[in-house]
Amino acid sequence: MVKKAVLTIIISVIMIVTSACGNSKPNQLNLPVSEFEFTNQDEQTVSLEDLKGKVWITDLIFTYCETVCPTMTMNMAELQKQLKAAEVDAEIISFSVDPERDTPAALKSYLGKFGADFTNWNALTGYSYEEIKSFVLQSFKVPIAKDGASDQIIHGTYFYLVDQNGTVVAKYDGMEDTPFEKIINDVKALQKS
Q1: Bigger pLDDT: 183 vs 28
Q2: What is the pTM assigned to this prediction?
């Protein structure tokens, strides 16, 4: 009887602690984003410095992608809609991993097909393939590579959450089970801190 009461108390404490952690600031990762100054879909410069003080979500895409990018971009557009509906401010940054073909106009046209709202979504280009390959590896710890059998670029499919200091604090599945509600709650938690 005493053991059962003690067990009940322990389970209750664990549940309280676990639920309290749900509102805590995400800190799954601690990856500083490298300095950058790239060109967006409107041919404007966007830099890491421009994003200081803002929470942002980022991904890696390219407009000629035949596999994962359309789904990821559709999910990012859905996330943008849900953020807006929840009245949560966050910037969205999509880095092209195929800068030789992804001009600002190509990126604008591509994202436009998914209903992107460009007031807080920037698609970036204006660098060499080698520069973005190095930047992505340093900042997100994920490699990108040209597929020798096609004109495709192999890259990660995560959405990354970046805090106000330019540090990647979490990553989420950008393809199949994108946790929209968790991302929104994590953005809110960062904004409260």
Answers
A1: 183
A2: 0.86
